[in-house]
Amino acid sequence: MLVLLKRKKTQYLPRNKTMKRHVFEHNGLKLSYLDSGGNGQLLIALHAHWMEGSTFESLAAALAPQWRVVAMDQRGHGYSGHASTRDDYLGDLSALFQHLNLKEPTVLLGNSLGGVNAYQFAARHPDLVRAMIIEDIGVEISVNIDFSLAWTGTFKTREALAQCVGPRFLSCLQDSFRQTEDGWRLAFNPSDMIKSNNFVTGNHWKDWLATECPVLLIRGKDSRVTTQAHLEQMALRRPNTVLCTLEGGHVTHSDNPVGFLDLVNKFLQELSP
Fold this sequence. Notes:
β9 (177-180) and β10 (183-186) form a beta hairpin. The chain is an alpha/beta fold.
């Protein structure tokens, strides 16, 4: 099923930094996550490459108190330890489920890297996933991010790092800026991101078609990572999948936060208790 939303004037949700940070360990690696708390139903949010859990703070505030959002800094990102392979991401997610002592299936939301991790985790643990929100990522992936190697190192000022990152990615990467004694750097190692991206590259139709839980598939109309035709095929070939196209780019929840929230709210409200 396909829904194409008309253009609306861009609106922004207020940034809310009330989520509390927690840490747990998995196979000797420290993993960090943000938790909005409360007694609402649980939604686990997984960010894209280069980003971290704080990208979902505004969404978490908007969904409260009906929904409790746990936003993980996936390995190699944010305040979590570094090192990554494809299976390690899924193992970390399984460890988070155990750490939170989850007894019921939960909702997964994933953007880009996080979306692949979400539907691959669901393919391996269908009993743990109630529904998914997949944000602007496909199942045939061949994106090259080698250009990010230019971001490696420490810069004298925040402005110098921002200039190196460039305006196209600055809004998404600002949360990953870190000040050190020597200057400013990114929270992640660009070479690690390239390795991680290489693990994501490939054909994942088998994982995508392995489950039948409800899925909201969201595409940014101006995305350079996905195509409308490919995501339409994903929605057509998988049961219980609705594709909605929003104004915005690859990180739709940041480019069009109010439109994204409206879609997510409607989808969550229609889930069976």
